[in-house]
């Protein structure tokens, strides 16, 4: 099995670094990633603003009560999306930090709250290195694209270098768009904002010497996202993760 290429010294950029014809522009990627995060939170934030406007203009008690409920619900949604984004896209903790799997479960449950998807978790380690956790969180969110009509995500985390898996089951399940990019396919530019997360998954896989495989045994059947580690993968500071 061929695992992702180890980034060369030129990949970090800097003066004298050779341009990579198979790599999107870093500023383009950063801009699209920011747009992705903003897109995820703009709807609940906009609903909060609408609710505040109703409170300011309305005197009807029933309308004001509806506005307060809207504000409360939207604030919880915005908070949940931001907490998930912090783990999936942010720099959580210091270098070498381990993050509790329970924190990931809490963030994932918040993201799914009130929606049509449920999640179940089977985790042997109690914590993961933050980069491995970041990879898992992105694969988890990417897997939602496999069950647009709702369903279930089953997450399995093994010890050490034994890997991780997300299984998406639901009506008319399908392999999500840009899965080839998440599995390491190279390209010179990102076609649209939907390609940002799968591209990031590819980067994270290379960072931890892992490979993602996306498979569907039968049409509309479960879609399996399997993360396996290459021979060069190391556990930080001898810790399980």
UniProtKB/TrEMBL annotation:
<feature type="domain" description="Histidine phosphotransferase ChpT C-terminal">
    <location>
        <begin position="102"/>
        <end position="217"/>
    </location>
</feature>
<dbReference type="InterPro" id="IPR018762">
    <property type="entry name" value="ChpT_C"/>
</dbReference>
<protein>
    <submittedName>
        <fullName>Histidine phosphotransferase</fullName>
    </submittedName>
</protein>
<dbReference type="Pfam" id="PF10090">
    <property type="entry name" value="HPTransfase"/>
</dbReference>
<dbReference type="GO" id="GO:0016740">
    <property type="term" value="F:transferase activity"/>
</dbReference>
<feature type="region of interest" description="Disordered">
    <location>
        <begin position="1"/>
        <end position="21"/>
    </location>
</feature>
<dbReference type="InterPro" id="IPR036890">
    <property type="entry name" value="HATPase_C_sf"/>
</dbReference>
<feature type="compositionally biased region" description="Polar residues">
    <location>
        <begin position="1"/>
        <end position="11"/>
    </location>
</feature>
<keyword id="KW-0808">Transferase</keyword>
């Amino acid at each position: 099995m061929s695992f992702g290429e180890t980034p060369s010294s030129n990949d970090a950029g800097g003066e004298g670094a050779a341009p990579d014809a198979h790599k999107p522009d870093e500023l383009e990627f950063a801009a699209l990633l920011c747009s992705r995060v903003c897109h995820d939170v703009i709807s609940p934030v906009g609903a909060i603003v609408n609710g505040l406007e109703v409170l300011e203009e309305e005197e009807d008690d029933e309308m004001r009560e509806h506005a307060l409920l809207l504000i409360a619900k939207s604030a919880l949604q915005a908070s949940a999306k931001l907490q998930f984004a912090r783990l999936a896209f942010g720099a959580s903790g210091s270098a070498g930090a381990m993050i509790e799997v329970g924190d990931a479960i809490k963030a994932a449950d918040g993201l799914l709250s009130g929606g049509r998807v449920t999640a179940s978790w089977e985790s042997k380690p109690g914590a993961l290195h933050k980069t491995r956790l970041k990879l898992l969180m992105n694969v988890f969110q990417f897997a939602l694209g496999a069950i647009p009509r709702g369903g279930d995500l089953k997450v399995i985390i093994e010890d050490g270098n034994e890997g991780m898996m997300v299984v998406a089951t639901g009506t008319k399940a399908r392999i999500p768009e840009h899965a080839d990019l998440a599995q390491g396919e190279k390209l010179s530019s990102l076609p649209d904002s939907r390609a940002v997360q799968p591209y990031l998954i590819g980067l994270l896989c290379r960072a931890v010497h892992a490979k993602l495989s996306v498979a569907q045994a039968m049409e509309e059947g479960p879609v399996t996202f399997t993360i396996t580690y290459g021979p060069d993968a190391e556990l930080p500071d001898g810790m399980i993760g």
